[in-house]
């Protein structure tokens, strides 16, 4: 590509007028980092329940941006991982005998289960109390017949 002498002279003249490169600024060590600025609780909250509460307070119509929902999911996942890790470490401690033992289950009377026959209370035969027990037993039996 060739230029006529007049265009070449004009290009050289413009090249002399172009601004020079600015020197790169030195980083200022006296200014505080942006992370120390006060931020909203929606940005800093770690507890999923509290974060959800804050999101609902901030939202005008109940909608939440996707990036904040992702943050809520991450917080829930972190909490679940901590819970799972704690359960795992407790079970490892119990297996090794270093943890505190769980209390024994409540003692149940021997020979009693849900198929145990009901015991009739000792009431005098023919009394009003006895007739009430008999009537209640008949109602239970009739109810069983109706449902079957």
N to C succession of SSEs: HHHHH
Tell me the β content.
under 5%
Give the number of DSSP strands.
0
Query: If helices are DSSP runs of H or I spanning 4 or more residues, what is the number of helices?
Result: 5
Portion in helices: 40-55%
What is the averaged pLDDT score?
Answer: 79
Shape by Cα distribution:
elongated
- What is the terminal separation in angstroms? 103 Å
Main pleated-sheet profile:
none
Brief digest:
This protein is an all-alpha fold and 148 residues long. The chain is 53% helix and 0% strand.
Defining traits:
0% strand; 148 residues; 5 helices; mainly alpha
Blueprint (SSEs and pairs):
Elements: H1 5-17, H2 41-44, H3 48-58, H4 66-96, H5 128-147
Helix pairs in contact: 3-4
How would you explain this protein's 3D organization?
- With 148 residues, this protein is an all-alpha fold.
- The chain contains 5 helices and no strands.
- Helix 3 (48-58) runs antiparallel to helix 4 (66-96).
- The model has no long low-confidence stretch (mean pLDDT 79).
């Amino acid at each position: 590509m060739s230029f006529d002498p007049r265009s070449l002279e004009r290009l050289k003249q413009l090249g002399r007028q172009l601004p020079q490169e600015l020197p790169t600024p030195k980083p200022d060590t006296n200014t505080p980092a942006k992370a120390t600025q006060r931020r909203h609780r929606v940005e800093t909250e770690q507890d999923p329940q509290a974060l959800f509460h804050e999101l609902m307070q901030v939202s005008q119509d109940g909608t939440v941006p996707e990036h904040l929902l992702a943050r809520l999911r991450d917080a829930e996942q972190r909490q679940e991982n901590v819970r799972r890790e704690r359960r795992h470490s407790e079970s490892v401690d119990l297996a090794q005998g270093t943890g505190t033992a769980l209390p024994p289950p409540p003692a149940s009377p021997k020979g009693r289960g849900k198929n145990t026959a009901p015991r009739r209370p000792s009431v005098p035969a023919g009394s009003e109390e006895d007739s009430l027990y008999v009537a209640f037993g008949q109602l239970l039996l009739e109810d069983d017949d109706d449902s079957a």
